[in-house]
Amino acid sequence: MYSHSYKTLQPTDVRIKTEHLNIYYGKKQAIKDVSLDMFTHRVTALIGPSGCGKSTYLRSLNRMNDLIENSRTEGNVLLDGVNIYDKQVDVVELRKKVGMIFQKSNPFPKSIFENVAYGPRINGMNDKKKLEDIVERSLKQAALWEEVKDDLAKSGLSLSGGQQQRLCIARALAVDPEILLMDEPASALDPIATAKIEELIYELKNTYTIVIVTHNMQQAARVSDYTGFFYMGELIEFDETKKIFTMPAKKQTEDYITGRFG
Amino acid sequence: MERHFQRDLEQLKSNVIKMGSAVEQNLIDALDAVLNNDPVLASKVISSDGKINQFEIDIDNGVVDILALQQPVASDLRLILAIQKINNDLERIGDHAVNIAESAYRLTETPQDEPLLEIPNMAKIAKEMFQQALDSFIHLNAQLAQSVLESDDRIDALNRGMNSQVVKFIKKDLKSIEGGLELLRISRNLERVADLTTNIAEEVLFHTQARVVKHHAEEK
C-alpha cells in the first residue's frame, strides 16, 4: 500500500491529506467538508470547543470511526497518496501504521513487559530476544525505560497516571507505527507528567508524524508546528502554530484562543 | 463572558494613556517655555519627570504580571508587546521634554533674544504628531497611526535646515554662540521626539493590523 519509504520524506512533504471530508453520525453531520494537509515529522494540533468535531476528525485518520454504529464517511483521507477508505485497504495494517493514544491511559492488566510486547506478539513475533529488544527500545522512546527497567514484571496498572500514559505510548510505538494520533494525551495528568509527555512529543516528531487533539491551547502552542481550529464541524483556520497564536487570520480563531468565545 | 484578564489588560492600557497624557503635558509645557521664554514653566517640567518615571515602572510590572500569569496570545499578545515598547518610548519622550525644558531655562539666561528660526514650526509638528500617535493608540486607529509615520520626514528636513541656519546666525554675531547651541539641542531633541512618536505609531499598526512596518520591513 505504500509506494516509498516514509523515512526519506522531508518535513515539507504531506503525509496525510484529507479532501472534502464529511462525517455523519446518523443524520447529524459531525465534520463538514474538511480539506487539510498534515506534514511529515511535524506535530499538527487540532483545537476547538467541545463537540467541534476535532476528535471525530482525528479518529477518521485511522478509521476508528468505522467502529461507531451509524457513522458514515465521505471524501478522501489520503495517507501517502492512498485513500485509506478504499475497499482494498487492510484496516488492521492501517492501524499498525497509524497508532493512537487516548485521553485516559488504558494499560492491559498485565506486566509492563507484556503490555509493550502485546502488539508485536499478536503480529506473530515470538522470538524472546527480539521481543526484549522491542520492549526496551519502545520504553526508551517513551522516556519510561529508566523508571521501570528493573520492574518489567510489575503490573502496568501499578504505575502512576503519567507513567501509565507513557506505557501506552510505548505500547503504541512497539508495533513500529509511522503516524501517532493523540487524543488529549495529557489532560488527566499533573503538570510534571504533562511536561514529560510534551517533551516526549517533541522528541518523537523526529521519527513520527504526530496529530494531537488538545483542549489545552498553551499545550498546542508549546508542542505543535501546525494548528487547525475546528468549530461546529468546520475547519475554520489552519496555519503554522506561531501564526495562529500571534496573528490568526479569522476572527473566530482569535475569539476562541483569547477566551472571548461565546 | 468577560475575563478578569481582559480587565487587567484594559487597566494597563488605561495607565499607558494616563502616562501619555502626562508626557504630552510636559512636552507642551517645555515647548511653551522655549517659545515664551518662561523659566517657571521650564522648572515645572523638570520637576514633574519623576511622575513619568514612576508610570514606566508600574507599567513594566503590569506587563510582567500579565505575561507570567495569563500567557496572552494573538491580539492580546500583540497589545502587551506594543504596550511594553510604547511605555519605553513615552519615558524617553519625557526625558527629551526635560532636555528641552533645560535648554529653555538656559536660554532665559542668555544675554540677548535669539530668533527661534524653525523651532516654532518643529514644535507645532512634533506636538501634532504626538497627539495623533496617542489618539491612534487610544482609539486603535491604524489610519491615524499611518499619518504619523508620514509626518516624520518633515521634522527631519527642518532639523537638517536648522544646522545651516544656526551656523549662519552665529557667524553674524559671535555672542550668539551659546544661544545657537541651545537651539540646536532643542532641534535635535524634537527630532528624537518625532522618531519615538513614530515608533509608537508603528506599535499601534503592529497591534491593530499585525503589520511590522519599522525599518521598512514590509518592503523587504
The total count of helices of chain A amounts to: 10
The SSE order of chain B reads: HHHHHHH
The H-level CATH homologous superfamily of chain B, spelled out, is Phosphate transport system protein phou homolog 2, domain 2
* Envelope shape of chain A: globular
Round the mean pLDDT of chain B to the nearest integer and report it.
Answer: 93
CATH architectural type of chain B: Up-down Bundle
Q: What does the average pLDDT of chain A come to?
A: 92
- How far the N terminus sits from the C terminus of chain A, by CA atoms, comes to 45 Å
Which CATH class of chain B? Mainly Alpha
Structural class of chain B: mainly alpha
- The value of Rg of chain B in angstroms is 19 Å
Spatial sequence of strands, sheet with the most strands of chain A: 6-7-8-3-9-10
Which blocks of ≥5 consecutive residues of chain A have pLDDT under 50? none
The most extensive interface between chains reads: A-B, 15 and 13 residues
Please count the helical segments of chain B. 7
Q: Write down the secondary-structure element order of chain A.
A: EEEHEEHEHHHHEHEHEEHH
CA gyration radius of chain A, whole angstroms:
18 Å
CATH-defined fold name of chain B: Methane Monooxygenase Hydroxylase, Chain G, domain 1
- How would you characterize the largest beta sheet of chain B? none
Beta fraction of the residues of chain A? 25-35%
